Amino acid sequence: MNLTADTSALAPVAERLEADLADLSGYADPDAPGWSREVFSEPYRAARDWVRDRMRDAGLETTVDAAGNVIGRLAGSHGGPPLVTGSHTDTVHGGGRFDGIVGVLGAIEAARRIRETGTRLAHDLLVVDFLGEEANRFGISCMGSRSLSGILTPAHLARTDTTGHTLGQAMRDFGADPERALGLGWDARSMHAFVELHVEQGPLLEQRGVPVGVVTAIAGIERLLATFRGRADHAGTMPMAERHDALVAAAEAVLTIERVGCGAPVHGVTTTGRIESSPGVYNIVPEEARIWAETRSVDHTWLSGVRRTLADELAAQAARRGVETAVEWLNDQDPVLASRSVQDVIAAGADSLGIPWAPVPSGAGHDAAHMAGLGPMGMIFVPSHGGRSHCPEEWTGLGHIVTGTHLLAATLTHLDALPDVAA
To answer: What distances in angstroms separate CA 66 from CA 239, 351, 417, one per listed residue?
Structure first.
């Protein structure tokens, strides 16, 4: 692809990006490990107020929609479907300083540099800090992008946490309008293109010594809650062969889930992240146990088959122990291919700036997967040291963030010049 615009002048101001990263990282729960800033928390509320101020400082017209998405707008000269970029600023419990944040601050800096250099885009540029991208206590991720893509449902809002509090009420308490959020969905093909800058959260780029990844696809995700119901008995008197131990059945299921993930032919991973049992004392055979697990893959065929495979295998194994099983699928997201055209523009932009790059899949979920239903979508990855993420040790060097932000600004400029962008 031949690109005509010279985007070398759009390089970000490294010191400004570094200061922004430090400032935003300061909004964290002091009573939680790492840089915890979970959705609906007070640190999250304060951080988003800071993001709004930062957007205004960058010259963006800033609003918050009914779903709680913070949106900054840089007006274009001709209007039409906007260019959209951004990410999220919430974290998992015990998270790090870069997941999501790089995409929001990089987008603000890219928009600022476009304005500061006098580069006039034809399309409006929207920078979005999406509400609640990370999985949370309600079991629903990507709340803000789900709303924009029209797939947030009343059933999602009715989900409850362990206290019986609903997601809808939590959104309302946070200042959003959950009922209006259900009807907020943008029209299909309402974006000129969407590009998200993000840390890779895996080891491929660092292992290859490449500073930029052009994302080819975003993995689909299937999350499950498996409940095992056995029988409580005296732990000292009931013989092993006559027990209906729910926790042992759950433990066997954890290993089955791991084995299924290891057998994926192309790309697939499985993880059991939580296990509980009751009554939870030493001298009673566990009567009930529950596990929360997920499978991910960019291979749609494998992911679809795993859902049936796991349900059948977990039930059969538990039945051999005299334990009943119920599997509830909490959340699903199909694999999403990045737009070939957007991938080409990102790659060509990297070539024009002399930035080495490599095509990579994303095993993590992103708001970009939902925004893909509204127009052509692409993602830019920068390396994660050691492939670490969702932990306090998460790290991406400033030089890589600067490179990714420069490429984001260049990509947006090149996409703006195209009369149409194919999916």
So the answer is: 58, 40, 31
